[in-house]
Specification:
Layout (H helix, E strand, L loop, with lengths): L2 H11 L2 E6 L4 H6 L2 E3 L1 H10 L4 E5 L2 H10 L4 E3 L8 H4 L3 H10 L4 E5 L4 H5 L3 E3 L4 H6 L7 E4 L2 H11 L4 E2 L12 H10 L4 E4 L5 H6 L2 E2 L2 H10 L4 E5 L4 H8 L4 E4 L21 H10 L8 H17 L1
Parallel strand pairs: 1-2, 1-3, 3-4, 5-6, 5-7, 7-8, 9-10, 9-11, 11-12
Bound molecules: 1,3-dihydroxyacetonephosphate and iron/sulfur cluster.
């Protein structure tokens, strides 16, 4: 079957919009109506007039789109496409953690479940996290969840202490500092750039730290030629398209890794065939109770209005 032709046909027939994250496989990025980072994708979800949102990303992203658009159908090619970071923060344990830190403002990274969003005051993404933290009055204490690496990075950048939830992303914790430094020796002109979900020792050697969109903008604006990119390797598709002459190297992972760890196993569950099927069958669709949806919407709206 010609999936490109069929997906384009279904897109018109069903007035659907395909939103894809930069970590999707190249062919899904190429057929999407919009490719972006978590913030851009939420903003697109908030303003689309399509009848059906086809979310080529992971569950928390599609769930966020559904929270914003209760009356639209939101489908995800594979319902099992989760996120290790979101999984590292179960709602019952987080609720107990919150009780241990009363009167704290809760800022949660968008990579979390609707239940965690409902327990939060403000949602942030990696591209607006600093702004969201700075929006909290200086006399207020903050809980930052679920990513401890992004949290630690923000504490350092802003100079403001926060209580951190101990969560992380399996992909961004797999980069090998030794191999990155060896590559830097091999390519002395290379710029190391990293996503803030990466560990502290990686961020320490990075010349630029930013969200996926931030990393793309940095490479595009630079006159330099070689970049070692510490984030999920799917981003190289878009980066290479925008910078055909530049030498882009995916940051290597640890020796003991047995998997292709700079690929997110959840993001890569989506395929062209599953994308076609979810559009044809309008399933699997994201469902959420109205009570939970309303609670989870408030901190998302706060983020969108401040962004
Ligand atoms: P951004 O696209 O917001 O940088 O986030 C990366 C990520 O981990 C998505 O899961
Ligand atoms: Fe989650 Fe990490 Fe995959 Fe992003 S790359 S979806 S944070 S597991």
């Amino acid at each position: 079957m010609n999936f490109v032709k069929e997906i384009n046909r279904l897109k018109k027939e069903k007035n659907a919009v395909i939103l894809a994250h930069y970590y999707q496989v190249g062919e899904i990025q190429d057929i999407a109506d919009y490719v972006g980072d978590s913030l851009g994708l939420s903003q697109m979800a908030a303003k689309t007039d399509a009848d059906m949102i086809v979310f080529a990303g992971v569950h928390f992203m599609a769930e966020t789109a559904k929270i914003i658009n209760p009356n639209k159908k939101v489908v995800l090619p594979d319902l099992e496409a989760g996120c290790s970071l979101a999984d590292s923060c179960p709602a019952t344990s987080f609720s107990a953690f919150k009780k241990e830190h009363p009167d704290h403002v809760v800022i949660s990274y968008i990579n979390c479940s609707a239940e965690i969003k409902a327990l939060s005051d403000i949602i942030c993404t990696s591209s607006n996290a600093k702004k969201m933290v700075e929006s909290v009055p200086a006399d207020k204490q903050i809980i930052f969840a679920p990513d401890k690496n992004l949290g630690r990075y923000l504490i350092k950048e802003i100079g403001r202490d926060m209580v951190l939830w101990d969560g992380s992303c399996i992909v961004h914790e797999s980069f090998s500092i030794d191999k990155i430094l060896a590559l830097k020796q091999q390519y002395p002109d290379a710029h190391i750039i990293a996503h803030p979900e990466s560990e502290e020792h990686i961020l320490k050697v990075a010349e630029y730290t930013g969200s996926t969109t931030g990393l793309l903008n940095y490479v595009k604006a630079s006159d330099d030629e070689v970049f070692i990119v510490a984030t999920e390797s799917g981003i190289l598709h878009q980066m290479q398209k925008e910078n055909p002459t530049k030498h882009l190297i995916a940051a290597p992972m640890n020796e003991d890794s047995t998997c292709a760890c700079n690929e997110c196993p959840y993001m890569k569950m989506n395929t062209m065939e599953k994308l076609y099927l979810c559009m044809r069958d309008e399933s699997p669709a994201i469902e959420i109770s109205d009570e939970l949806r309303k609670k989870a919407l408030l901190p998302i709206e706060r983020m969108l209005s401040l962004s």
